Structure prediction request, 414 residues.
Amino acid sequence: MTKVEELTNPALFADEDRLHKLFTALRKDTPVCRVEPEEYRPFWAVTRYETIKDIELDNEQFLSNPRSILRPTEVEQAALKAFGTVNALEMLVNMDGERHKKMRRIGQNWFSPKNISNLRGNVEQLAKTMVNQMASLGSECDFAADIAMYYPLRVLMATLGIPDEDEAFILKLTQQLFGGEDEDMARTDGEETGAATRNEVLRDFHTYFGKLIEEKRANPKDDLATVIATAEVDGEAISHLEAISYYVLTATAGHDTTSHTLAGGMRALIENPDQLRLLQDNPDLIPAAVDEMLRWVTPVKSFVRTAKDDCEVEGVKIKAGESLALYYPSANRDESIFDEPFTFDVTRKPNRHLAFGFGPHVCLGMHLAKMELVSFFQELLPRLDSIELAGEPQVAKAIFVTGLKKLPIKFTMS
Prediction:
């Protein structure tokens, strides 16, 4: 592989130093760079902050459908055969125009700052429970696997109205869907691998959430799952596939990205003890610190847009139908936007990071994610007397959503 073609190599995203060196070079020399990997359809890699922001805003020219995520050609073809679409699901991230606006409204009120504030008590209680669980583990744990992986999942399950006993199942499927390129997370219960295995994971999601739809329509509750199951657009109930897709997006992206930010944020505090002390002495800085953690970690590595018409991006001619991959970790280290971008600074202001995307497709659950992170660190930091690494942190291998899978730590708590 040439350097730029490594952008389709999951191992690159597990090596953060190497990844950021590549992005820094691309921002400087070829901010819109042609990539032609063997197992993927070609695309243009876009790495500068302002360019990514402009593309995100122009959703009429740069479309999310039909290609919103980088997937191997084999996976796209298998999904098309199995589900009738290269995306396998009808998610918000694959939609454009009026359809996207109308489908987005289904969850928009639920995830609004006003409604999210009503969930604060439950979120804070779950944060307290998880911090108590961390304390019960003694003086050592794997923070990524034992704490960060479960806290956002439990918030999400409570929000959706998913039974507690299904926690392990949802966690397993999410890891297999987003982390299937990593040997520690890939599905191994059979001989098939690659596209076939991924489609089996999606079928499991279809089956599980299909039953949930039936249950919520028969016995509606005051939860997000009922809102989705009973949603209507233009006076007609949304399709079965649209409802399942809404569930999958909410139940996976809604916790996996937050867990990666939580683990990565903790690692950043351990490796920058002056910043940890600053937060403990000034807890009012925690909300700003959470934004810096989001910038620092950027768990969603890219989304893809397709050019509707011929155009130019940074002087590069893009043909209609060609794909552009928007690299958010690069945008969030852009030297033209952030002072000392490779310094972790909990007082950074302003902090206009793109960890949640931008424009019409900005993350629907960003207010809940921030609340979860703020609540956890507000609960943990006053009780944390000491903390240090107890081994080598490990990042999962994946090109779409990834973060720490292992963060061994030693700590003392009051």
Observations:
- The longest strand covers residues 302-307.
